[in-house]
Amino acid sequence: MGCGPGHLTAHLAGLGLDATGVDLSPAMVRRARLDHPGVQFETASMTDPPAADGSLAGVLAWYSLIHAPDDVVVGVLDGFARALRPGGLLLTAWHVGDVVRRKTQGYGGLPMAVDVHRRTVALTCGWLRDAGFELLETTLREPDAEVPQGRVLARLPSPPSPRSARLAQQ
Asked: Could you give all domains of the chain from N- to C-terminal order, each with its CATH number?
């Protein structure tokens, strides 16, 4: 979700995964299709993932949630949880901090006007838990850098099997 120029989606497809890149920007989707023919890309918003409930094995949100305001991210994570099947994985990365910066230059030096939201690891992990995810691994990369990087691998829990539910009741 938020695939940008598509290089990570193409990498996943190259590993044999059934990967589809999704981006809000039609220009990014055009660029991704040009650079990675044969890989599926579509224009859509991560606020309403273009996937049926429980249909995805995984979601990669690699530096894409940074473009959504805090009040929107909560709904985005709920949408990811809706689209994932039980046991499905979410891998996300973002800029760590507690400020919003305006980005005025994009790929290739092209002008743009996009807010970049830096968030703490604790805030992001709290949102993930609230959306129903269990955290498998949390990483703070380059904590002393000007802009540290946060990464979380999370899973949507599988419902207990009937047998384990009966054992838990005993």
From this structure: 1-44 (no CATH), 59-169 (3.40.50.150)
